[in-house]
Amino acid sequence: MKLELRGITKKFGDFTANDAIDLVVEPGTIHALLGENGAGKSTLMNVLFGLYDADAGEILMDDKAVTFVGPGDAMAAGIGMVHQHFMLVPVFSVAENVMLGHEQVKGPVKLLDVDAARTKVRELSDRFGFDIDPDALVEDLSVGAQQRVEIIKALSRDAEVLILDEPTAVLTPQETDELLEIVRQLRNSGTAVVLITHKLREVKAVADTITVIRRGKVVGTAEPSASQEELASLMVGRDVSMTVDKGSADPGEPVLRIENVTVVNEASGVTHVDDVSLEVRAGEILAIAGVQGNGQTELAEAVLGLLPTADGQIILDGNVLSGRSIRQNLDAGIGFVPEDRTEDGVVAAFTVENNLILDLYDREPYSRRGAIDPRFVRTHAEEQVEKFDVRTTSTQALTGSLSGGNQQKVVLARELARDLKVLIASQPTRGLDVGSIEFVHKRIIEERDKGVAVIIVSSELDEVYALADRIAVMYHGKVVDIVAPDTDRDTLGLMMAGAHGKEEAA
């Protein structure tokens, strides 16, 4: 099925998210929609999927104009969409999620035909090598497996066009490779795939056609043979450096000491961090590498005090942090960029300016005599929005209305507004485009060069190599080894898979 968008325009008040966009997707091809965070990619696909009404333009399928008043119409026409934030019910089984909204019944009393859904799941799982158990509860599945369930949902409704919105934003490198292979299989089976992304390596790996959107307009098309630098320049409208000029670190004395720390899940009894010892010096970046789920997140949260330690000590400038409140730890000079900005980094229902003072609101000059000073808060927000290039219509806009990348910039702006001794950043550029990644990396290097001790937790090896002065590798809650940033990728990958140290990995 050939899909065509002509002159699609979508406005939100005075803001034009899509400005007369034309797009043609041929059957059996992978069409990458490339652009910065907030460029209008997801908005365009939400119009196509019936979630938004276009203010102008038309949608054609096989040269016939169609109108969708909701996602049900789009799905009935053969369009499926896997959203960046999955639309699954965690306590339902895979089969129940697949049939939800598309229920089949059987027998005279019209009971739900879960067996038919199970059969469909098995059929699609076997066909594409998904390895999904139809009776598994979604909440027990990995993120990568949940994404495959979303794809099965779409394919079970005979989708001829499948939209994947930032599909690798929360995947490990291994899961990303598996997904890209699935995308190729879908194309080879005749399905048209629209891949919304900002990750240049993935685009070059699978795309047949690339359309670049910048600030709501199509600014060009490119072939997959185009260099990453050429694609990045089209995305952001300027030359972008694909490498970080971090210079040489000049580390001082240890600022943060983690001594024999163990973190245990109090409900399940599972040990997430197992007798870990690390130290981070002033003016250096320690990157903690590992496949997600090996204790890195819990270690970072324990340093701030979000999780209790079952054993060991965390010491900042000679002061033991254990038993202190999160607020006390923040006041002691810890900046914290959480792994999940949506859940833990921002309050979506608060304005941008209020999110920028979440840890500053009760002190001068942000408040006086117990009352927030709205004029100073607004001035502060306007300065930070400009400094961090936060794309928003106003500092009074709800933070939930911003793209993911711009929400991340709000988090960084808030945390870096304070005088820090330690900066902890978990997955700091997850879901960000190349321009935003370049900006975030520069700011992290600047903090290091100011003498801040920096801990980066990242499952992206490119990011680890770009920023690290030293690399600690974690596997099953333990530190496998601490290595130099010139350790080769294969060796580091084997260590992330559990090889104990450089000698065994080699």
Automatic annotation (TrEMBL):
Say if the entry is tagged with keyword Nucleotide-binding. yes
InterPro entries the UniProt entry points to = AAA+_ATPase, ABC_carbohydrate_import_ATPase, ABC_transporter-like_ATP-bd, ABC_transporter-like_CS, P-loop_NTPase
Q: Does the keyword Membrane apply?
A: no
The chain positions of domain ABC transporter read 3-240, 256-501
Q: Which SUPFAM superfamilies match?
A: P-loop containing nucleoside triphosphate hydrolases
GO function terms (MF aspect):
ATP binding
The entry's keywords? ATP-binding, Nucleotide-binding
Protein's UniProt name: ABC transporter ATP-binding protein
Per the UniProt record, the source organism is Demequina muriae
